[in-house]
Amino acid sequence: MVRKKRTQQLFHTYFLEWVELYKVGAVRSVTLDKYYISHQRLTELVPELKLCDLDRRAYQQLLNDYAKDHEKQTTLDFHHQIKGAIMDAVDEGLIECNPTRKIIIKGKKPREKKPKFLNQFELQLLLKQLNLQPTINWDWFILLVAKTGMRFSEALAITPNDFDFSKQMLDISKTWNYRGTKGSFQPTKNPSSVRKIQLDWQLAMQFSNLTRNLDPEQPIFISRRVFNSTINHRLAVLCRNANIPIITIHSLRHTHASLLLFAGVSIASVARRLGHSSMSTTQETYLHIIHELENQDSDKIIRHLATLV
After folding, report:
1. Which residues lie closer than 8 Å to 102 by C-beta, 6 or more apart?
2. 153 near 28, Cβ under 8 Å?
3. Could you give the number of structural domains in the chain?
4. In 92-194, which ranges are E strands?
5. In this predicted model, what pLDDT tens digit does every residue of 142-166 receive, in sequence order?
6. How far, in Å, CA of 197 to CA of 104, rounded?
């Protein structure tokens, strides 16, 4: 009787209960916010859909309606979040058959992508534009990200205690929740993101001087609430001044990784430096670069074999 009553429950209500039961306290606040956004979309798209009516046809229509205003990858991300709750409902016997089976993912035509990374010459032009003052500013932040490949939230969380200047190492063990009104430390994206990054001697010396008189346990870049758009705006100004493609802070991470790969650094080493959970993430993200390097290797192999005759 109770199960029959629960099958009459609205799907968006079940999804919200599922999020609060299984996701609150288990995922980062940034990820949790995405689940709540997905719930909001469900209330807009299928406000009257009950669990008992959620079959494959109804679910495909839901995804089709969502895809009208979203790109294919965004629709796929939405599907993955919703599917988690649906599969639990199937396991509970609230839905008879898996409605997500053989689902087709659609979406709007992707917008023209902005450049993901700079080449070495363009990066050098960018760094020449930096106004590296005797005290910490956002240009120092841009330099640090460019030379370490850190994520935006990881770089914001850096404190003087995270530097080991004698070994030229930087300890990445936390992130900064810049989306909160007050801001706070929080865990890294995944366990693999906890890592130590080797610094070049010049960068180590520069930050040794910059952080000497700062509170050892406080973020060196944070004095008030920080917005991603503020730093990206500064970076855009520098890019325009250098007459190079305008990129974002996250693109500096891609630039760092791509230059290491082109320099012959192994995928395993790049994955560890970036804090990727596995090498497959690195391979998928930089597949185009890996293919280009494989083509260069093929040319080297042929030239070498030709000398054996």
Report:
1. 56
2. no
3. 2
4. 163-164, 169-172, 175-176, 185-186
5. 999 999 999 999 999 999 999 999 9
6. 42
Burial of 27: CB neighbours in 10 Å, binned 0-12, 13-18, 19+: middle
| pTM listed for this prediction | 0.69
Cα–Cα dist 103/64, whole Å: 10
Tokens representing 72 are: 């294919």
- Going by pLDDT thresholds of 50, 70 and 90, the confidence category of residue 263 is confident
Residue 283 corresponds to which amino acid?
Q
Residue from 252, 253, 257, 249 nearest 279 by CA: 257
In whole angstroms, what separates CA 174 from the centre of its chain? 15
Q: Is residue 212 part of a domain?
A: yes
Range of the structural domain that residue 277 is part of: 120-294
Q: What is the pLDDT of residues 112-133, one digit of tens each?
A: 666 678 889 999 999 999 999 9
Residue 181, judged by CB atoms within 10 A of its CB (0-12, 13-18, 19+), counts as: exposed
Coil/strand/helix, residue 10 = strand
Do 133 and 84 share a domain, yes or no? no
Determine, yes or no, domain membership for 39.
Answer: yes
CA nearest to 108, candidates 46, 66, 61: 66
Residue 158 CB burial class (10 angstroms; 0-12, 13-18, ≥19): buried
179 and 229, same domain (yes or no): yes
299: which 2 tokens? Answer: 């040319």
Assigned token pair, 67: 């895809």
Sign of CA dihedral 134, 136, 138, 139: positive
For residue 198, the cross-strand partners are: 169
Are 187 and 75 in a shared domain?
A: no
- What average pLDDT does range 205-221 have in this prediction? 95
Vertex 162 angle, CA 239 and 233, to 5°: 20
